[in-house]
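Example record for the data management plan.
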Amino acid sequence: MYWQAKVILGLFILVVAGGLLYGFRSQLSKFRLLTEANDRITIPEHKLIFKKIRSLGTDSDDSANLTADEDQPPPSYIRKLKRAQALFRNDDLVNARKITENILIDPKLREYGKHWAETVELLSEINTIFLFTDAPCPEKAAYTVQRGDNLVKIANMFNTTVSMIQKSNNLDETNPLIYPNQVFRLYQGEWNIKVIKSKYLLLLQDRDRIVKIYHIGIGRQDRTPVGTFEIDLKDYEPDWWQPGRIVKFGDPDNVLGTRWLGLKAVEGTDPSYKGYGIHGTWQPETIGHAASQGCVRMVNADVDQLYDIVPLATRVAIEN
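Corresponding structural encoding:
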């Protein structure tokens, strides 16, 4: 009877162990399914950038038209971009910028594609530091304040703005006073702006070099005109002039956001294009869409920045 009891006890242990193992495997399968589902809904970083940049140029939220060759970066692209990112993290901004600009001139890099977007976003971050801090770069010239100088005079001499002089030299923006023998470092840029309607992008350029990239909204029903313009008016906290009334800044009905850069048609562009401009918006969800009455919209923080960088008479090319 003893051996029979041992057999029965052994069988009982096997049954219990088998049940536990089956339950564990069942839970493991559920865990795997859950993990696989989470993996499927995780959006890769480059997809987020691609969606942000809306580089397909559609006015919908669908980015499914991505072509196969978009996933094939040029040889050495990843190595170069990682190197630039590492230099950026280590504050070697000049060399980080050299590498990003070198990537952009690769003829195998698809313009406005996801790899182009990654590179230009990094370049934009680097140049933001050059423009708005005292970080040195080759484009900055030293200028010693002379007797009789003021910030407006110096800004005109260097094709910049008072705000840029103050920000990049750690000056008190509430105090316009300057003194002889102060030394300023001033970014000398030959500024121009390119608006690409189909990509919902605005590129700030120094000659033909991309300095900053901004995401924009444009006019619905193709109301944003194509042509060459120049900035002929800059307005801080603008009022909105409507037929028969003025909508003051701060009024919920004022759609202009925090800044207005008025545009004047030049170089053969139809002179009847009047009243257009680049402005902010209180509706950031409209960026990447054709939603305005014809003007170029930017997030308020972005238009504030652009306003600080570009002086009057900056050329603006709007293309499809």
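Summary line stored alongside the record: Helices lie at 2-41, 45-53, 77-89, 93-104, 114-132, 151-157, 162-168, 300-309.
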